[in-house]
Amino acid sequence: MAIMLPLQAALGRPPHEATVAARICCYHNEPYRKIAWQITNRCHLRCPYCFTPERDSRDLTYEACVRLLNSLRTLFPHKDRLLFAGREPLLHDSILNVLSHANTLGYRCSLSTSGELLNANTVEELCNRGLQKVNVTVNAADSSAHAASRPGGRLARVLDGIRFVRATGMILKVNVTLVDKAATDLTDTLRLLAELDVRRVSVSFLHPAGPKRGMGPAFTHEALHAIQAAASRAQLPLAHIHVIAPPEHGPCSNHDMCPASRGLVAVLPDGTITQCNIFPFAFPSHGVPHE
User: Fold this and answer.
1) Could you give the number of structural domains in the chain?
2) Which range marks the domain in which residue 176 is found?
3) 182, 211, 228, 231: which one has the fewest Cβ atoms less than 10 Å from its Cβ?
4) How does pLDDT run across 172-229, given as a tens digit for each residue?
């Protein structure tokens, strides 16, 4: 599971004037209950920091997804949380039916999406199929800045999607990824989310081992204090600050801060079961059962 370290302890310094309930996400060798399924590589956005630049549109059929889910339940019976991710999981043709089957298997399901495809009907259907949590990304309060960090993105649609999810009562978390200029208006972004009554917000540093290392701000004490100050000004407590591997440790060298080999199960679009969806390496002989 993710170990949440209080921000003050992680920084080793006194907190900012207004205490922010932000926590640093680190991973250790404790039971990790989540399966992250990158169910498709299809996406309508072209985010420059995406760690899956391939756009292979060949998704598993619904029948193959069912077999894979059944296998996952048998292989990893203690992992009861299933995250549908991607690129854009809502572009998978069978996502609703796959979600229904996962729900019947007892999974607590969540979905990470751009938010742009979350119209009223889709959100209602997701809720009816058993989805419990939705993760959406908003990188800036300004439409042009948001679109610059997520080319093809339309902020207005994302904000509408947030409103629809809030109306259902499903858990909503908004992630803000620190990318170039989008990081400079963090206070405005957090204020916008506060106005939408968003109650769970996380701030993410770019993975330093990804294809665009160095694009965003480095993970430093100063950066953490700046985030904390922005949250204080916006009067919006942060849920988490995501740190996968601090830059000074280099790619994948600090295993205590990476869930790979510590119990993370990731599933790729072709059904391969792996320990990391950024640097994939498969478990022996595990994958979707063939026809």
Assistant:
1) 1
2) 2-274
3) 211
4) 999 888 776 445 578 888 999 999 999 888 887 665 444 455 455 555 667 777 778 8
